What does this fold into?
Amino acid sequence: QFTDRSTDEDGEVVAWEWKFGTTTSDKQNPEFTFAAQGATEVSLTVTDNKKGRNTKTVTIDVGRGAISLDLLWSYPYDDTKDAYVFGTSPAVSPDGEYVYVTSTGYSLVCFTKAGERLWAFDIGKDGASAENNSGSIKVQSPTPSVDEDGTVYALAGFNEPNKGAGGSAFYAVSGGAGGGSQVWHVNTGVNTSFRLLSPAVTEKYLFIVARNVPSGHQNFQVYDKSSGDLVDERHVNGGSYGGVLPLKNGMVIAGTGGSHGMRVFFPDGAGKWKFSCVKSNGREHNYGGSGKDATCEAPNGTQPASGPGGKVYILFQNQGVRADKSLGGGVVYCYDPAKTVYGQTPEPDWYCPVKGDCAQSGMGVALGEDGTVYAATQKTGSVAAHVTAISAQGVKRWEHAADGDINGVPAVDDQGFVYYNDRTTGKLVKLRPEDGSRVAEIKLADELRSSPTISYDGTIYVNGMKDDKPTVFAVKGAAEGCAASWSQQGGNPSKTEYMY
It folds into this structure.
């Protein structure tokens, strides 16, 4: 908004000519929307009733508008034949200076926030491979996470059983400009695979969920983060994959795969964890289960989330346990861990069915600072992929149908806008929080089967497939940071899964 403040001592101003670059306006007090940000000259020439003229020129700094989504840089980071991005998303160091990406080619690559490639660490060097039984590496894989001290944790493992050789791997790697060196390595066993999760990082421990672990081992595993020593392991389900959520009170929520809900583990006070037991009738005391029967909803690779009020939010594949399947293929549950009692089947505070599905695709929820829950689902049959906004009380606020499909978790910036990756169109899409309307979009890749990561400075990092190569993209919008709440996959840009 521009205001004319010119005066004339011996007459009156009768004409105005504003110049905004090459655009002009003859209004006295015009409004003008700039097409680009940065330093811009604006001039006003006024003419009085005696044809006297005068001009004033100022330089203003044009800020970014809500519709701004600009590509800052992109970089193809893995030349391995058939290397693929499915489920793995960028992770950012706590100082926002470094970005880490992986793919099924099994290089952990470090970039500066300016787009300079610093180093790559081979997380397949100890025999791990992404191949499935058909020999393909176009498979699901995990996201790295970054500790407060900059250490990067990365998982690599055989994607399917019966590969018969080598071993899966868990690495701690030094981060930053002088990084790229191995801190420790753990062989997690032949045929173990890791899908659609990031290592959860607490003050002392690392939590992961493995799939197809060797005989004698369990799927839910706890490691000492300084040494890599295995501290504890518990059973979840042989086909488990998906997120792990450690809470500040010591409880841990772990994905199980299949119709097992999400297992709830309680600390036993001696540095170990215990599952909330199974009653004699076989009913499992999991999140996502029913107090009426033994049936549970299926997590299928979903990422659990937590809020500042202590509640836990989980997107399940709707099995009809509580909500009719006709209301949606997905269902969001809200639990209060303070009400979760050892040995008793937990009851949700609320549940809300959502359109679309969430089967084996790394879906999940993010939270706005006002407590709104944003869930992403994928296309199923004639039902479009959706992003759905649900109030903190469990009431559906709006639904947004994607043009293509979605594989991943939404992200929320510090202004409340919501982002998701459209897998099919290769676009990063920005939504208005009030009604889910599309504010902006930017074409990045040929395929995006990942979640956007909003950094601490507002830069949005995305990785996907472009020209058949895993590629990382840095996008700048109007945001100056991510939402302070559980704003994205992993909760924060460092993907630690640990906030509340």
User: Anything to note?
Assistant: The chain has two domains: 13-62, 70-476.
